[in-house]
Every structure is written in structure tokens, then in C-alpha cells.
Known about the structure:
With 131 residues, the chain is α+β, with helices and mostly antiparallel strands. The protein has two domains: 1-32; 34-120, CATH 2.40.50. It is built from one helix and seven strands. Strand 6 (103-108) and strand 7 form a beta hairpin. Residues 27-32 have low confidence and may be disordered.
Amino acid sequence: MRWTWMLWIAVAAMLVVAPVALAADRGDKAHAKGTMVSGELTAVAADSITVAAKAKEKGAAPETKTIAVNADTKVKIEKAPAAEGEKPKAEDGKIGDLKVGQRVVVKCSEDGKTALGILVQAPRAHKGGKK
């Protein structure tokens, strides 16, 4: 009887600890895959882009980041939706399609120095609208 009770306690402890450990492990892997930078393109070159990244604190100046691009960098360009309320569709693009002034989200390598993927966001209407 005593061994059965100890066995049940051990099984219950494993049922509680194992999912927590797995969830923590998944979080580390997702973070290790890379970082994200979003902002406005301020310069485009054959081997790099410069992004004025959104400031982390309200009222602070944007941080400028230069990120290397290469032949493996995937570019997606959102097209404006056909109807109000629809999500924009993203099409494949090239580095040559990038233009200064576009809003982008860049997925970077783990060290943050190389772009793995670039999403050019479709221009959005202001939410305030006309009254």
C-alpha cells in the first residue's frame, strides 16, 4: 500500500513537471530562430537594407539598423486588399522590388545581422477615418 501511494505521487509530479518543461523548451527554440525588426526602409543596397526601427519607448527616436541581405533572403510583398476588411495577400518579390519609404517587417538571423525574410506591408488607411 505504501509503495502504491509513492508511485502515484511520482506519476502526479511527472504529469505536472513534464508539460511545464516542454513549454519552456519550445519558447527557447522559437526565440533562438531569429529576431524581428519592423519599421521604414531608409536605404536599399545590393547587399544590405537600412531600417528605421520602431522605437521601444513612446516618444523616442527610431533606431536605425543596417541588415545584410543575400540570395537566400525571401521577399514577400503585400498587395492592397480588394475589399474593406479583407487581409492583404502577400506575393513573392525580389530584393530589387524594395524601395525607400516602404514599411517592412524583417525576420533576421539569430545574431540579427542577416535578413532571412522581408515582408513589405501594404499601405493601410488610417483607422480614424473622416467624420
